[in-house]
Design brief:
- By secondary structure, the chain is mainly α.
- The chain has one domain.
- Helix content is 78%, strand content 2%.
- It is built from twelve helices and two strands.
- Strands 1-2 form a two-stranded antiparallel sheet.
- The longest helix is centred in the C-terminal third of the chain and has 30 residues.
């Protein structure tokens, strides 16, 4: 039972990251690579603040605000300097590597013995699950409500058809920047929670997070195949939890932890390619019948 609760708790924390990536990759149709840097940024900022005696809840909120600045920079590079979307994110991500070391003063910071969000409420498996569920639920609700508003609908429309939005006089550049800021803010919050959960912040903690988030999104889409926006967001959360259980099972089967990145990448490739494989097989069967 403790393992079940612990795995769900981790899944809920990583669901915040997956929801952030869902905004850019799926809603905005923007290949944003900033997430690996903004997640680490959130963890490093939160760790430094906690070590200096700042309340961990306030530290997590500040980390989220600082993370939005990473999205702002990426948006500025893309919309104002006309740099390609994926390259804008990569440039920001690379710059954040040095910035994160500057913030922490070294490659990693330990939070052992320090007060964290989880320790405030007892630091038990059940309390950690409740905290993860509460934070994820609050952010999930905010996202759901926001994307029902006019600015949120405009972001969704920009991702669907940017040229049509421009023809109607909408400022699509602002919509992109806003979406990037929201996305990277959520990634930073996830980073702050991961750092507090693990007991340390490390400059490499964001490595591979994009693949993890995409795997969660694809798994969620395989679980719930509905067009409802609300159900799509629910699918992302469920996909993140399912992914953590997959990781738990493969580790218990004897997989070397150092191979997890390779396993995650392979899983994402298979899940992403599966629809095309199914179409190819179906087309081949139809051709054979004809």
């Amino acid at each position: 039972m403790n393992i079940l609760i612990s795995t769900c708790s981790q899944g809920l924390i990583y669901a915040i990251l997956a929801l952030g990536l869902y905004i850019t990759f799926k809603i905005l149709n923007f290949a944003d690579m900033t997430a690996e840097g903004s997640l680490t940024l959130g963890g490093s900022v939160c760790a430094v603040l906690i070590i200096n005696g700042v309340n961990p809840i306030l530290s997590t909120l500040i980390a989220g605000l600082i993370g939005s600045l990473a999205g702002l920079i990426t948006g500025f590079l893309h919309t104002k300097l006309k740099i390609q979307a994926i390259l804008s994110g990569i440039l920001t991500m690379i710059a954040l590597y040095s910035i994160n070391i500057r913030i922490m003063g070294k490659a990693n910071l330990s939070l052992l013995g320090k007060n964290t969000v989880f320790k405030i409420f007892g630091d038990t498996q059940i309390s950690n699950f409740v905290i993860g569920l509460t934070i994820c639920g609050v952010l999930f609700s905010i996202l759901t409500l926001f994307f029902k508003t006019r600015p949120g609908m405009a972001i969704r429309a920009t991702g669907d058809n940017e040229q049509m939005m421009r023809a109607q006089g909408a400022n699509t550049n602002f919509k992109k920047i806003l979406a990037l800021m929201i996305s990277n803010s959520m990634c930073a919050v996830a980073g702050a929670l991961i750092a507090q959960s693990n007991g340390y912040a490390d400059v490499t903690m964001g490595m591979g997070t994009i693949v993890i988030a995409l795997a969660s999104i694809v798994i969620g889409e395989a679980i719930i195949r509905k067009n409802s926006f609300l159900l799509k967001l629910i699918a992302v959360v469920l996909g993140s939890i399912c992914y953590r259980f997959i990781i738990f099972f493969v580790l218990n089967l004897g997989m070397n932890p150092s191979d997890l990145k390779l396993f995650t990448a392979a899983t994402a490739v298979i899940l992403l390619a599966l629809p095309n494989i199914k179409k190819t097989i179906k087309r081949s069967v139809q051709n054979a019948k004809n």
